[in-house]
Amino acid sequence: MEDNSIVFDVMMPNFKTIDGVTRVSELLIMMRDEKINAALIKPRDKENTVYGIVTLKDIARKVIAARRRLNETHVYEIMSKPVLSVGYNMPVPYAARLLTNFNVSYAMVMKNDDVVGMVSLNGMVTQWKGD
């Protein structure tokens, strides 16, 4: 039996979008409280900039391993950008292939030019119903 899941079916609707000047220490509290592993960083100017992303892996590599202070580092200093985006109605296998080809674990989910969620490779795997 073929699975017809689309990204909308496996996305994380409870994603967090924050300002780039947020301190990493504040982000970690939010991530712990809301049980999320990544956060989108709002563009400063929607016309000329793009979203960024910070993951737990970014914090480990770019802050902790680099011996930077959590309360003195802003998320814009460690974020990755641009963030890959996928349409909400993209079939899950295509989304998984796209993220894998770009060697990223997360993507924004877009519907009518609005961010409606985030999708992760982990989420695709744990929610996959195919044979």
Please characterize this protein's 3D structure:
34% of the residues lie in helices and 20% in strands. With 131 residues, it is of the alpha/beta class. The protein has a single domain (7-127), classed as CBS-domain (Roll), CATH 3.10.580.10. The strands form two sheets. A three-stranded mixed sheet has the order 1-2-3. Strands 4-5-6 form a three-stranded mixed sheet. The protein is globular, with a radius of gyration of 15 Å. The mean pLDDT is 91.
Identify the notable features of this structure and list them briefly.
alpha/beta; single chain; 131 residues; CBS-domain; 3-stranded mixed beta sheet
User: How many alpha or pi helices?
Assistant: 6
CATH classification, class level: Alpha Beta
Judged by helices, strands and strand pairing, the structural class is alpha/beta
CATH architecture: Roll
Helix content: 25-40%
CATH superfamily: CBS-domain
> How are the strands ordered across the major sheet?
1-2-3
What is the helix/strand order? HEHEEHHEHEEH
Mean pLDDT across all residues, rounded?
91
Number of domains: 1
Strand coverage percent: 15-25%
Radius of gyration, in angstroms, nearest whole number: 15 Å
Give the low-pLDDT segments: none
Q: Helix and strand layout, with pairings?
A:
Layout: H1 7-10, E1 17-18, H2 24-34, E2 38-41, E3 52-55, H3 56-64, H4 75-78, E4 85-87, H5 92-101, E5 106-111, E6 114-120, H6 121-127
Concise account of the structure shown:
The protein is of the alpha/beta class.
